[in-house]
Amino acid sequence: MHSMEKYYTWEANKKVEIRKSTDLDEIAHLTVPHIFKEAAHKYGNKPALVFMDNGQQKKVTFVEYYHQVRTVAKAFLKLGLQRYHSVCILSSNSAPWIYSNLAAIMAGGISCGIYSSNSPEACLHCLRISDANIVIVENENQLQKILKVQNQAPKLKIIVQIRETPRHDSVLSWKELIEIGSNESDETLNEIIETLQPNECSTLLFTSGTTGLPKAVMLSHDNLIFKAKLTEITLQMKNNNRRVLLYLPLSHVASQVFDLYKGLVAGVCIYIADDRALKDTIIDNLRTARPTEFLAVPRIWEKIKEYIDVYIRTSSLSINEKNYNISDDHLRNRLYDDQLCSKIKEMIGLNECKLFKSGAAPISPDVKSFFLRFDIPLAEVFGMTETSGSFISPAGLTPELLIHGCGKPAPTMKVKIHQPNENNIGELCVFGRQIFMGYLKNPKSTKAAFDDEGYFRTGDLARCNHDSVYTITGRIKELLITSGGENVSPALIELEVKNELPIVSHAVVVGDRKKYLSLLITLKTNRNSETGLPTNELSSDLKYWYKYLGCDYQHVSEILQHRPTEVYQAIQEGISRVNAKAISSAQRIQKFTILPRDFSTMTGELGPTSKLLRNVIYEKYGSEIDRMYTN
């Protein structure tokens, strides 16, 4: 065996050697059930989970939480869950999701979250690669996906439905599952818990699958517990009444580490948001939870910014337009007065929050500047599923670096830039205890993910300045190579476009193997209150912008049909300002096209955390792209 192969595997029943790089690696090696039992003992009757149940707010203490998970674990064993086989969970966030996740691990199986937006075929991929014995589905709609493919999943034994009464005799209700577990003794479960090891696989999380089928990332007990403990050591938060808002999908690593395992490690209470939080109820949920720490993807911070914009423009606050629109670099980070900052924080539900994070995708410096002036310093963190969440954060940075840099590596991570170019940009490679075990049943991708020194090759491009601050500049797989041979990272250009043009919801730079760059644009629109899908109606929040231009149209279709000069000229002027900042002529945008509708997860252009799925976009809007190069 190659000396570095001890650190990774592609088999669910294999153990790996836990990496060590610094003194902080002396944090004890623990399993998930061990830390859970400790939490139940330490935090006892403190609230662990808060959620709405039949219109009433329900609170679950740490002791109740622990016993409920044990009950579900015993039911899983009774129903035939085998060691190193999975329990797949196809549901939006809920208490049963959390119980099932921890119960699968406690019973010696593997938890495997499936995004609720997955197609039946995508669900089948998850079932087969994880050797699923049990599937937990949310409702009849999700059940139908599994019923369509269950005959192709040979290891599947039972389906459990959380909501509604199952209409199929072979499907158990959640209530029936609890009854089964309640009638089982603790003996078998206790014996299994004693055999679990920190360096075994506990959880499968899937990559976004932007260039093929999603890969199943294997995270060990130690990956998850160590990362959660490390975060607590770094933050040193003393508040005994800490709260987080769980609204990002639990199938994503950010929710697993920032919410779920932080709760077990530090006694943090988890408020479970309603199903619409990512669509349009985030402010309502924040006001209910009043979190003491909050992690959001850039699209959520942008929505909150728009909400504040509208509030200020339509209220009688003592703030004039000139002051509100400060753009001078010297003044842009100046705080508003304490009274205004407090009022805004109270309004958006962040008045008790001490930690504000942004992750999962790049965020605009202008958005960070905006929030900083309201005393909301956004800490942009960088990480991946394969690194058990973030490993670069801006802790301790000045406001200027906070806005324009990404941050410094975690104290337990060794970082290097592989083959830097003349601008000191190269592939970011990392080594540390939070690096994943490997890709399940995928030896080729697993081996390719690590270099000869055991460093994980992130696939991200980065540069490091003299203060050891790392800035992520793009993804290697997203690089565009023009016909002139110049490499272009689209993400930073797209951010600049959104900075310059408030009406733009999404911008996608295209131009691979072309003579010049072009741009696909979607305009911000209102969402359907029932489906959450983007509508044809231009965003109510930005009517002032169109009015300022002298445009009276209310719909995207009218903009495309009439092509109002004032709107197209304003967009072109914004693009020209972006082009003025370009480091070379090859980085300038020559043409743009406005698409007829905004992107969404439901229509396929965005992943579960609102990340652009570029291959889907290129294929779906291929004719629009072609026209920019043929006309």
What is the helical fraction, as a range of percent?
25-40%
Task: Give the overall shape, derived from the CA principal axes.
Answer: globular
SSE-based structural type:
alpha/beta
What's the tally of helices? 22
Point out poorly predicted stretches: 326-333
Beta-strand level of the residues, as a percent range? 15-25%
Average pLDDT rating: 89
Number of strands: 29
Q: How would you write the strand order of the largest sheet?
A: 7-6-5-3-4-8-9-20
Cα-atom radius of gyration: 25 Å
In whole angstroms, the N-to-C terminal distance is 57 Å
EC number: 6.2.1.3
Enzyme class: ligase
Domain AMP-dependent synthetase/ligase: 36-440
InterPro entries: AMP-binding_CS, AMP-dep_synth/lig_dom, ANL_N_sf
Q: How are the elements arranged and paired?
A:
Blueprint: H1 32-43, E1 47-53, E2 56-61, H2 62-78, E3 86-90, H3 95-106, E4 110-114, H4 120-129, E5 132-137, H5 140-149, E6 158-161, E7 171-173, H6 174-182, H7 187-195, E8 201-206, E9 216-220, H8 221-235, E10 243-246, H9 253-266, E11 269-272, H10 277-289, E12 293-296, H11 298-314, H12 321-324, H13 338-348, E13 355-358, H14 365-372, E14 378-380, E15 382-384, E16 389-393, H15 399-404, E17 408-409, E18 414-418, E19 426-431, E20 438-439, H16 443-448, E21 456-464, E22 470-475, E23 480-481, E24 487-488, H17 490-500, E25 504-510, E26 517-523, E27 525-527, E28 534-538, H18 543-549, H19 556-562, H20 565-580, E29 589-594, H21 614-620, H22 622-630
Parallel strand pairs: 1-11, 3-4, 3-5, 4-8, 5-6, 6-7, 10-11, 12-13, 13-14, 26-29
Antiparallel strand pairs: 1-2, 8-9, 9-20, 15-16, 16-17, 18-19, 19-21, 21-22, 23-24, 25-26, 27-28
